Every structure is written in C-alpha cells, then in structure tokens.
Give the backbone structure.
Amino acid sequence: MSSLAAPAAVATAVLGVLVVVLLVAVAAVHTTRARRLAAAQGSRAGLMALVHDLLDDGDDEAVVAAPRDLDEVLLHLLPQLRGADREAIQTALTRRGVVARAAADLDARAAWRRGRAATLLGSTAGRDHLARLTALLADRSLEVRCAAARALGRVGDPAAVHGLLASLTTARPLPAGVVGMAVLDLGTAVLPALRATLVTGSPAARALSADVVGVHGDLAATSALVDLLTDARQPEDVRRAAATALARIGDPAATDPLARVLLDAALPPLQRAAAEALGRIGDPAGAPALLAGLTCPAREVAAACDDALVALGPEGAAVLADAAGRGGPLGTAAAATLDATSQPGRLVGV
C-alpha cells in the first residue's frame, strides 16, 4: 500500500499544478481580451469623433489622415445617411482611396473580392463606374452578378436600366427578383424606358417591366399593358404580369379588356389574374363578366370571380341577387356567393 501512495501523491500534485497553470492561462486570456476590447472601443470612439467633426464642420483633412480602421466605420455609416451627410462620407471615402481600391478589385481573380468591390461602389454611388458594374452583370459568378445588379440599383443612374433588363436573357441570366429590386431602386426616372420595353423588349423584360410599372402605379403605361394583356401571341406569364399591373394601377379603362380576357382566354391562371384585377379596379362594368365566370369549370377562376364580385360592394351584390332570382346553374352559383358573404367567418370562393 505504501508503495502505491507515493506515485499517487506525485500524480495529485502534478494535477494540481496543471489546474493552477490552466486557471492562470484562462485568466491571462480574459485579461488580454478585455484590454483589446477596451482599446478597440477607445479607438472606435476616437474614430467616431473624427466622423462627427466631418459631418458638423465639413473638414475632412483629419479623416483623410486617419488610420485604415476608419474605412469600416465610414462604410458602416454610409447606408444610414442621406443628403449632405452621405455626400460628405462618400467624398471622404474617395479621398482615402477606398473607392479607387474597390474599382481595382472589380478585376480581381477572386469572386468574393469582385463582389465586395461592386457592393462598395454601389454604396458610394459610383456613377463613374457604371460601365464596369454593368459588365459584371455577365460575370461567371452568380454572386458577383447579383452584387453588381444591386449596386447598379443603389447607384441610381437611370441609364443602368437597359443593362439590368438585358441581363434577364443573357447566357448567364440573373434572377428576375434581383433585377426587379434593382430597377425599383432606380425610381420613377426609368418609367419611360420601362414603357418602351413593354412594346419592344424580350418576354422576360416585358414581364418584369409590367411588374415594376404596376408597383409604381404608372397610369401612362395602361395602354401598353392592355395591348400585352389582349395579345394572344404573348407568353401567358407576360399577359398575367400585365393583368396584375393593371390591377395595381386601377384605371377603369382596363375593365373591358380584362373582362374579355376573363371570358375568352381559356387559360385559367390568366383568367384568374383578370378576375382579381377586375375586383381590385372596382368598376361595376366588370360585374357581368365576373358573374359569368362563377360557372367556370376551373375552380380557381370561379373563386376569383366570387371574391371580385364581393369586392364590388353593393353593385356586385345587386348583380348576384338578380342572378340568384333567375335560377339555373348561374343562379345557384350566385346564391352560393351571397350565402357565403352573409355568414361571418366564412370565406368566399373556398
């Protein structure tokens, strides 16, 4: 027993020493980390003081001479600012060489560097680099192409709309959602170009242009949208986009074309879009077509007509009541809609 006690005591002592060493090491790490954090906070406070001086006094000499850590502070603040403050930050980034370094990185071999450079130039509203950002819409990396599209939207130059729309149909097409958000970011200045695209663009560009002019409520686009809606040679998705845009714009001039499409198209998704548009526009002149649509074999179309008639309010209710009184299949469908609307908690069209 005594022969085993000595090694055990030694092992216990060694273990105790190791525990003490570990505790000291952990304490040292925590101390070092705390010092670094305090130093970083102090440094950031000093950098923020420079930024405040820049925004208050317009003196950017101290900002230009500041350490490189200031670049991240400026880039973080930039999206949060508008007007003169934003312009002051942009000017400071340009004078510090940040914009020039980003422009050089547009040709970098690494995709992440090209994407980061595009994002930075978009944030700094680099219109001087519009052509190079547009060229990146054909980059071999999808992430870079998306970054370039978002950057073009943030730059805000209406001339970017042509490259963005063209990127929908290149050998490496961009997702329509990414392009659509970028075009929306360009604002109403691009509406004339979008109206022209409704007439002359590719099917993908026409569909996206219809979506965007609809979101903007562009009344001047109504005629071109009606032409797309009623042109049976157009792809169905383009015609649906036109119907949805007309619903958003709300011009009663679209009521008759929408009613004709609802009755004659024989394409249930398009007919449903037409019915929904008639409901949103709210013109009682669309009620007869909606009433006829109640007996459409496609349930989605009949349900949309249900909802649209209810959306017409008293005028729709009067049409339904008249049809219900006449009986027949149409009268039965109309009575079912009236019954559904009179019972709280029931959903029309379900």
Observations:
- The chain has 20 helices and no strands.
- The two ends are 86 Å apart (CA to CA).
- Confidence is low (pLDDT under 50) at residues 344-350.
